[in-house]
């Protein structure tokens, strides 16, 4: 019989599974509509995710995963995040993320000078992803 007091959490990307936990008691993510906390026996949910961190509480500790878009689906105490990309806190290369941040900032400046609104938007997304990775790594 399944344990109704815990969640099974999986985070997957096009490159494969990034994270799995079978003993979670709380997952907090940021959706397009705001922050969402899911505990065992929550009602079923499907929501689009913002570029932000996912926090998974289990066994008295909290894991943080940088999630860069995608969606979350929850039912029957199984939570799945399908993300464009995701990295566990300990796997984030802060130097690489900082370089990506600086590249994105430079591309934004250049695109604004050229009045290239599409490139500004693409570079802003890249900047949000880099800053998200840095923030998660430094928690």
UniProtKB/TrEMBL annotation:
Domain of life: Bacteria
The ATP synthase F1 complex delta/epsilon subunit N-terminal domain, residue ranges: 7-86
Gene Ontology molecular function, alphabetical: ATP binding; proton-transporting ATP synthase activity, rotational mechanism
Record key words, sorted: ATP synthesis, Cell membrane, CF(1), Hydrogen ion transport, Ion transport, Membrane, Transport
Domain ATP synthase epsilon subunit C-terminal positions: 91-138
Localization per Swiss-Prot or TrEMBL: Cell membrane
UniProt name for this protein: ATP synthase epsilon chain
Purpose of the protein: Produces ATP from ADP in the presence of a proton gradient across the membrane.
Assembly and binders: F-type ATPases have 2 components, CF(1) - the catalytic core - and CF(0) - the membrane proton channel. CF(1) has five subunits: alpha(3), beta(3), gamma(1), delta(1), epsilon(1). CF(0) has three main subunits: a, b and c.
Family recorded in the similarity comment: Belongs to the ATPase epsilon chain family.
Topology of this chain in the membrane: Peripheral membrane protein
């Amino acid at each position: 019989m399944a344990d109704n007091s815990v969640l099974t959490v999986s985070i997957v990307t096009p490159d494969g599974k990034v994270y799995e936990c079978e003993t979670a008691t709380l997952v907090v993510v940021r959706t397009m509509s705001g922050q969402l906390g899911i505990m065992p026996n929550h009602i079923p949910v499907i929501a689009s995710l913002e570029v932000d961190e996912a926090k998974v509480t289990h066994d008295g500790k909290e894991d943080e995963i940088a999630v860069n878009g995608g969606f979350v689906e929850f039912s029957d105490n199984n939570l799945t995040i399908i993300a464009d990309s995701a990295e566990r806190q300990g796997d984030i290369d802060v130097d690489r993320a900082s370089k990506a941040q600086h590249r994105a900032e430079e591309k934004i400046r250049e695109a604004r000078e050229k009045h290239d609104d599409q490139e500004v938007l693409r570079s802003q997304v890249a900047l949000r992803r880099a800053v998200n990775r840095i923030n998660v790594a430094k928690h």
